[in-house]
Specification:
Distance between the termini: 64 Å
Number of strands: 14
Number of domains: 2
Shape: globular
Strand order of the largest sheet: 1-6-9-7-8
CATH class of the largest domain: Alpha Beta
Radius of gyration: 21 Å
Order of helices and strands: EEEEEEEEHEHHEEEHHHHEEHH
Structural class: alpha+beta
CATH topology of the largest domain: Ribosomal Protein S5, domain 2
Bound molecules: (3R)-3-hydroxy-3-methyl-5-(phosphonooxy)pentanoic acid
Length: 347
């Protein structure tokens, strides 16, 4: 019996304007629009293969070589939507095989630590949806597929596009207009780079879903953030991206990271995602920008202590000169730069 198979990779995206808060938990509809940068494929990514055959007896999912339960509602919602889209195709074209009725075997692998605030669920659900969409030969309208990925994990909808991506929160109660769109492809701003400082690869202790719920229900700052601050920032940040205005983009990114973590701290009981090392990195970035009297680097932190630094390639040496002094004893540098080259940074 024939087996159909398709594979894809999806990169991680890191928000520069954070999604934090759901107006509809079942459909993953956000309380604000958000913006992110999708990292390059060769950096952090999920590789997913999906197979289907009339002979398969049950749906299965393997994550990093371990079988995982497919029982959770979010995954089931994604699979259901994809099967419905395939069924619609089969009804139009009777010569198609009934893939929508067959069971699926899915295998997924991350090349980075899972659930450590490195947006693994974003890459994971994006790869799952695109792999099955390929398997089912669904029309590749990424914004339409982003609505399916969104149900798996909100931020996943943004990983369907490369470069700078906006997730428009939408207004409809059924989520039909809550989708991702590309703001600018990466090749239009190729100097933009990201460095990830992995402060800890431990699993985070407050999941984003429960953290968001607590913030929405208990933080006083939250209302100001979603009603006033983020809508204004959403337009300003899109403008800064289109104009490739790094200092403006960087300031908005840092302000938004601060604002998001402030609402976490303002939740009751408070949620702490940053730790002492994260705070040192914030001070270091401030210090670097002050030293050069120019904003050459921005920090941002998701629901965990790890930092993502954005900078333009022309400033890599200026930035790494500082980072090397502080971090040269830590693993991870040698993969891209040799010792000699690193020493040259700090001279
Ligand atoms: O998509 P989730 O449920 O993993 O939430 C992501 C939340 C943040 O990473 C903190 C912000 C964002 O916009 O990605």
């Amino acid at each position: 019996m024939s087996v159909h198979i398709a594979s894809t990779t999806a990169p991680v995206n890191i928000a520069t304007l954070k999604y934090w808060g759901k107006r509809d938990t079942a459909l993953n509809l956000p309380t604000n629009s958000s913006i992110s940068v999708t990292l390059a494929q060769e950096d952090l990514r999920t590789l997913t293969s999906a197979a289907t055959s009339a002979s398969f007896e049950r749906d299965t999912l393997w994550l990093n070589g371990k079988e995982e339960s497919l029982d959770n509602k979010r995954t089931q919602d994604c699979l259901q939507d994809l099967r419905d889209l395939r069924r619609a195709l089969e009804e139009q074209d009777k010569s198609l095989e009934p893939l929508s009725q067959w069971k699926l075997h899915i295998a997924s692998e991350n090349n980075f630590p899972t659930a450590a605030g490195l947006a693994s669920s974003a890459a994971g659900f994006a790869a799952l949806v695109v792999a099955i969409a390929k398997l089912y030969q669904l029309p590749q309208d990424m914004s339409a597929l982003s609505k399916v990925a969104r149900k798996g994990s909100g931020s996943a909808c943004r990983s369907l596009f490369g470069g700078f991506v906006a997730w428009e929160m939408g207004e409809q109660a059924d989520g039909s207009d809550s989708q991702a769109v590309q703001v600018l492809p990466l090749d239009k701003w190729p100097e933009m780079k990201a460095a990830i400082l992995v402060v800890s690869d431990a699993k985070k202790d407050t999941s984003s879903t429960s953290g968001m719920q607590r913030t929405v229900h208990t933080s006083d700052l939250f209302k100001e953030r979603v009603d006033t601050v983020v809508p204004r920032r959403f337009n300003e940040m899109k403008e800064a991206i289109v104009q490739r205005d790094f200092p403006r983009f960087a300031e908005l990114t840092m302000r938004d990271s601060n604002s998001f973590h402030a609402t976490c701290l303002d939740s009751y009981p408070p949620i702490f995602y940053l730790n002492d090392t994260s705070r040192k990195i914030i001070r270091l970035v401030d210090g670097i920008n002050a030293f050069y009297n120019e904003t050459i680097v921005a920090y941002t932190f998701d629901a965990g202590p790890n930092a993502v630094l954005y900078y333009e390639e022309k400033n890599e040496q200026k930035l790494f000169a500082f980072l090397y002094h502080l971090l040269s004893g830590v693993d991870g540098w040698k993969s891209k730069y040799g010792d000699e080259q690193l020493k040259a940074f700090s001279d």
